[in-house]
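Researcher: Checking consistency across runs. Here is Urease accessory protein UreD again:
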Amino acid sequence: MNGAPRMPALTRAPAGEPPRAGDGTYDRRTAGTGPPDEGAAPGGTFPATGPALTHPAGVLATARIRAAHNGRATTVPLLHSDGPFHLRRLRSRGEWARVCVLGAMSAPLGGDRLALDITAGARARLEVTTAAATIALRGSTTDPATYDVRLTVDEDASLRWLPQPLISARGSTLHQTYRVELAGTSRLLLREEQLLGRTAEPPGHLSTRLTVRRDGRPILDQHTAYGAPAPAWDGPAVLGDHRATGQLLLVDPESGVPPEPVLLGDPTRGHCVLVPLADGPALLATAVAPSPDRLRSLLDAALAHASGAGT
């Protein structure tokens, strides 16, 4: 028997609370479990998945959402919460099933390996959002965190991915990827927003990659990096003095695509460029702005312009 004193295991506190020892009041190993939800499997329980995996450098977790059309309406037969992702079904809006991703703990932190897998089955209509902004923090290690979002949209299905902004806090390192697989008749609305640093602080290091394939063919592969050690990210050719950036992707086989790029806004208050992609009925809006409110208004204006072009 080892006579050395045993130290309490550390657990991650919920968002907004300081870390605490494993005293039973909060244990991230229980994340992903909870009361039955409308989208739970038959019998009122979530699919058996086990606890989120943990290791000294962070959390390994994958949450899954699957929507299907039953011949009358869109249902959500799979809502699998895991780690920091707690999934809740919202009230449907017309023919659209809606799901909200809530934060069950502070994430992503250094060393975390997080993934969110969302599938809209044939003829389904699914909208997914988040309850609050995601804040990338350093945590107890300088190891980078990864956040992988995988979106799959089957034939005649529609998916809207509309999360709240991602905030890159000082000292954090996050590698985020979006991998999108579209069928030839599917529709997608994707919005992503990044805020570089909180008020009066420099950002951490944030790299993002967005890859989109339609009918097995790539239509977009884009990589961006902000914050040290990325070179020239705050130069006049990239962000300049702006610290809010984002983009909106619209893919709709039935919409008209304007043949020429459109510039919205102005350089001092933020601006947005809306361009058609070379292969496929798709429009990409990219915006930079001095504030998150201005960024959202630019992306909303781009969406309104794109929707008007299709009428």
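Researcher: Does this match what you'd expect to see?
Model: One thing to look at in this run: Residues 242-311 form one domain.
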